[in-house]
Amino acid sequence: MCLCLVLLGAVVLLAGCGEAEPEGKIRDLEFTVLEESEIPKALAEVIGENKQKEMKLSYQNDGYLYIARGFGEQKTGGYSISVPQCYLAEDGIHVKFELIGPQSSEEMKEEASYPYIVVKMEEMDETILFE
Known about the structure:
Elements: H1 2-15, E1 25-28, E2 32-33, H2 41-50, E3 54-61, E4 64-71, E5 80-89, E6 92-100, E7 116-122, E8 128-130
């Protein structure tokens, strides 16, 4: 009996060690990161006109929602962007983007770059919250 209580206590403690769910989260959203050639022309034009500065854009077309995030001019190349969170909550769609700097061992171009990312998901009429 004592062993059962110890095991039960360990299970309860371990269950509490995971990352807490964001408040109001309903579900994770599936998305696809697009290649430059897959971005709708109208959105690609807006990105091209605004890539020198930070940008947060959304675009809806043919039943899809496109969310774009640009980080403006960077002094070198070698940057990438990750999307660690994308979920639907009571207050809208939450999307977190992270700019990842060049690897120190990577050969960096000494010219400016304009890193951005576009994700595609099914169309939803929700507020988009960039994190």
